[in-house]
Design brief:
296 residues, mainly alpha, Tetracycline Repressor, domain 2, 2 domains, 0% strand, binds protoporphyrin IX containing FE, binds farnesyl diphosphate
């Protein structure tokens, strides 16, 4: 009799989990919106299909490499100890082979079916996250996620370049928004998980500088985020509908961050973290809807 771990459907699920599917989905969502914002009408179908596939494969490969490198850290935290490389449901050899194959496939798809610039920039992003952030920054400095956030912020730029073949200043505004969003997104979670990070020896901000200091940083970055999200409007990239949406979503984020600093209650850090995800989805949805409302 085969054990549950050996059944093909359950094995497939382990590979799926190795790719951090929910994070990758939001990352790819921002890349797709980058494609739509890059052009007045609809993006070229090849960029949309192959660009999405290539960026998804490379992001999933980056996430798998992160789990391969971090398996010992992941084993020490309740949140991550159920991951396939920790439980042993996937071995190192097949995980490395899987990450390599999908990463290479993503690069080839982008190079030949989209354009070489997208392939190269996406590959830099993969190295930025899986190499620079995971191998070095995460273990080295509490500013790890601020610097590493550059990799997570790149996908709208990648989508934009996939659709047009060139880097445009407007796409850098989208980069800036996710870059500034990352610290409140992550540090809200890290406040809740401080003890786990301390136990695993990872120098996240609440471990090195304390929870009170981290709450202040979450609030300051959220203020900066609201300011930065006005840029698409003032540069003429987006219209009034976007501005109203951005300020509404930003107001709620500020309310969370303010309470986290000045009247924290148990559970609030995780609710703030959860809202950060809703916020980014909402903001990018407003960017997209506004783009087409202005067009027609
Ligand atoms: C350096 C940058 C980032 C760091 C350190 C970070 C950290 C994290 C961590 C630790 C979690 C896990 C929460 C849990 O297991 O409960 C998480 C979840 C998540 N992150 Fe991030 N994140 C970053 C960037 C991003 C970016 C750029 C996106 C998308 C644009 C994103 C989207 C998400 C989503 C959707 C989840 C929820 C996943 C789930 O429900 O399993 N993150 N993030
Ligand atoms: C297009 C492309 C190549 C994109 C790659 C960018 C990418 C996959 C970013 C993911 C960001 C993220 C989940 C960071 C958390 O890592 P962590 O190790 O701190 O979190 P963990 O403890 O949950 O593993």
């Amino acid at each position: 009799m085969t054990s549950a771990a050996e059944q093909p459907s359950s094995l497939l699920h382990e590979y799926y989990e190795l790719c951090k599917p929910r994070v990758v989905m939001l990352i790819v969502f921002t890349a797709i919106i980058g494609m739509f914002l890059a052009v007045p009408g609809l993006p070229p179908i090849a960029a949309l299909v192959w660009g999405t596939l290539g960026i998804t494969l490379q992001a999933a490969s980056a996430a798998a490499i992160n789990q391969i490198i971090d398996r010992n850290i992941d084993a020490n935290m309740a949140r991550t100890c159920g991951r396939p490389l920790v439980t042993g449901r996937l071995g190192m050899t097949e995980s490395i082979a899987f990450a390599t194959v999908i990463g290479l496939a993503g690069f080839v798809v982008l190079w030949f079916l989209v354009n070489p610039l997208t392939a190269v920039l996406t590959q830099f992003t993969l190295v930025g996250y899986a190499g620079i952030y995971t191998l070095y920054l995460k273990r080295a400095t509490p500013q790890n996620i601020v610097i590493g956030g550059a990799a997570g912020a790149a996908p709208p730029v990648l989508g934009w370049v996939a659709a047009t073949g060139e880097l445009h200043a407007h796409s850098l505004i989208l980069f800036l928004i996710i870059f500034i969003w990352t610290p409140p997104h992550f540090w809200a979670l890290a406040i809740e998980r401080r003890d786990e990070y301390a136990k695993a020896g990872v120098p996240m901000l609440p471990v090195t500088h304390g929870i009170e200091f981290t709450r202040t940083q979450v609030l300051l970055y959220t203020v900066l985020l609201v300011v930065v999200t006005i840029l698409p409007f003032v540069t003429g990239m987006s219209g009034l509908l976007y501005l109203i949406g951005a300020l509404g979503l930003g107001g709620v984020f500020l309310y969370y961050a303010w309470r986290l600093k000045f009247s924290p209650v148990p559970g609030l850090p995780m609710r703030t973290f959860g809202y950060s995800i809703v916020y980014l989805m909402g903001l990018f949805t407003f960017l997209l809807v506004d783009h087409y409302v202005r067009l027609f």
